[in-house]
Amino acid sequence: MLAAGLRRLRVRPVLLLGKTGQLGQALARYLAAGDRPWVALSRADLDLAQPAAIAPVIQAIQPAEMINAAAYTAVDRAEQEPELAQAINGRAPGILAEIATQLGVRLTHISTDYVFDGRQGRPYQEGDRPNPLNSYGASKWAGEQAVQAVSDRHLILRASWLYAATGPGNFVTTMLRLGRERTEVRVVADQVGTPTYVADLVTAWAQLPPDLGGLYHYCNSGVASWYDLAIASFEEAIALGLPLQVERVVPITTADYPTAAQRPAYSLLATQKLSEILGAPPPHWRESLRQMLRVWGDRPPAQSDQQL
Q1: Model pLDDT for residues 143-157, shown as the tens digit of each residue
Q2: Which residue among the candidates 124, 136, 163, 218 is catalytic per the annotation?
Q3: Of the candidates 307, 282, 277, which has an alpha carbon nearest to the alpha carbon of residue 295?
Q4: For 258-272, what is the mean pLDDT?
Q5: Where residue 121 sits, what CATH number does that domain have?
Q6: pTM of the full predicted structure?
Q7: Which strands, in side-by-side order, build the sheet including 154-159?
Q8: Total domains, the chain
Q9: Is 136 among the residues known to form the active site?
């Protein structure tokens, strides 16, 4: 009905895919605060694993711009469901790019630092060759290639270690839950990257020129391990008066915590290319973590609990 109403008014909306994810929710809040018409879809509205269903839905909406924040993000489960990950992360973006080309609109596609293997020991530039270690990363790399092969009006943003106060559980909110339940938490300390607050990613995207295209990296400034992020999350939460009982955070190795999917040991993204366009580097990850925890701590306890 919304699409039909927009057609009658001859207004082409911004189309957001993946509205229920943590990034999708942040993008929806931004779009809701603006004056452009917009439509947001979840997997229940459009299943990207069903390729034949994609074009009819989007052609009916006739968007003026498309944002693909939808993804299969279960990194470990992707090792058992590689075809599903490829369908959603690898093939569907190519279909979206084809439709965007037909409509003459820009497609913004969100990707990940997990397209890299983490073995080069310096921040990854946009031109560095991806070499994913796991099925999730391989599917995201396939999606990037599909978009680049089809659309000349695309914007691919690679981000890393995303977290938010709302949406599905993430590392920070998981640490807060464990910090309330346990006196000791063990966290991997030999995987390094940059935690990135989704609100900062949305702000950066909103400030980019509307005709900007190409591949760019965005993450907060600074470097951290998962152990560093856990320590900072607890310290900042305690400073805000949030109830925690954790007393010890024990650093462990990747070998101590085996997972189905292999993860890059070093997946730091270089952001100079996008920072030059924005006119400033991204905020430091610890500053953004503090802001996120203020938002999380201000929410009603029942609501906060549901997000963990």
Answers
A1: 999 999 997 889 999
A2: 136
A3: 307
A4: 96
A5: 3.40.50.720
A6: 0.91
A7: 38-41, 14-17, 65-68, 107-112, 154-159, 214-217
A8: 1
A9: yes
